[in-house]
Input
Amino acid sequence: MKAGSNLEKVLTSGHFAITGELGPPRGANADVVRKKAEFLRDKVDSINITDNQTSVVRMSSIAVSRIVIEMGLEPNAQMTCRDRNRIAIQSDLLGASALGIKNVLCLSGDHNKFGDHPQCKNVFDLDSMQLIMTLKHMRDEGKVLGGQELDGVPKFFIGAAANPFGDPFDFRVTRLAKKVEAGVDFVQTQCIYNMDKFRTFMKQAVDQGLTEKFHMLAGITPLKSLGMARYMAKFVPGLEVPDYYLKRLQGVEKKKQADEGIKIAVEQIQEMKETPGVAGVHLMAIEWEHRSPEIIEAAGLLPRPKLD
Amino acid sequence: MVIAERKPIEEILAMVADFKKILLVGCKGCVTVCCAGGTKEVGILGSALRIARKKAGNPLALVEHTLERQCDPEYIEQLAPMLENGEFDAVLSMACSVGPQFIAKRYLKQVFPALNTTFIGGSLEHGVWAEFCQSCGNCIIHNFGGLCPISRCSKSLMNGPCGGSSGGKCEVSNEIDCVWQLIYDRMTALGQVDRMRKIFPIKDWSTSRDGGPRKITREDLKL
Output
């Protein structure tokens, strides 16, 4: 065991994993966190806690992770390179470990231009690849990047993201291979809708032997409505929503679109279970945490394994 | 070269509102090439300021002068006859921001910048300039097919495109080419795409502005 997190145990014991996601609130109200997290109790193996997603100021991912730990749940703290230099990153990682956080997801971070403070200075001292290397260095060498020994080594199960649909497509598996070489233990992908393209991506990863070296969790985001599907298709860079899903949502009356979106998500999860190289799914029900349980239930992923 | 652009006329008028006698100083260096602060632009700004101030009932005595460069003390010295006799109460510089600082260092006068110094770049076509360098102080572009991801990737990523690269464009704006797409295309064309599999290590930023204001001393050139 590298960190001994529940997620690590589930994945290494060969169970099909399911992780959830919780977006921290814009405010200091911890009850919002508790309420959202409660929906995911016993439904997921770990909960991603986003780090100022879309560059909008929100409660700190590490603080929210701790609240989740105090509820007896397991967080996967996301950490971006956008807002911290290597001093702050390493400091936050030490603090995260001391607070009991065992999973960390390394991200470049959405560009600040999209958020509520586009006037800010961004950092990007490290990129996501180098952030993975930083965690691995601290964990395996017991040192900070500067070379000084750590008194108390942070043990993390190291995660990263991958977007199989970003361009150039042919480079995407190479970028994944780099993340594996950098030391990643698990990868969660961007929301997948184009299953054919995803299978092509996974085949390349499997053929190169990559999936033997890390655990791949496929990203699923249920489409809440036709409007959301259209928005995702049109305006989210690096995200593809095939026409057949748009048509399917269009084919049902507005009130039933959410149910149809959930049906699609369930089908996708079932397809993922059959996709070679896929070790689990990451369910990103954006501001829809309360609908996650029924999706997970319908996908036949309950009960979750309890491992010591 | 240094690319600059003129501040909006309203901003310049507001800056100099309390001054009656102004020396407007252009520069024949980079800002002449990028059409922001050369003799021609000095003439245009000078006329615009005079007209606006006259119209506002607050006439302005403004003299135009363009130096060979404003980033060398020897040229700044040429302003001495004009700035040491009390003829002007302020200087408006049309150089990159080095110019007004050099003038302020040499003369005890209020100095204003007429330009915004924007980036180190080059001309893409007539009237269009783009950023190509962030002066990180340790050039690494040979690792990336000769293209700079530090200045041209919105996140300065060093290990490939983020998930927001779409159709050759950056997620930040359709106006920005994804430099990682360009790097990939060029490395492919050069038959070197395999080199992109190599992890680019954590960068030492101490040669950049992060190491504090920088200075180069060339002993072989010192007098």
In short: The radius of gyration of chain B is 22 Å. The first strand of chain B starts at residue 2 and ends at 6. Residues 2-118 of chain B form a domain with the Rossmann fold fold (CATH 3.40.50.2300). The mean pLDDT of chain B is 97.
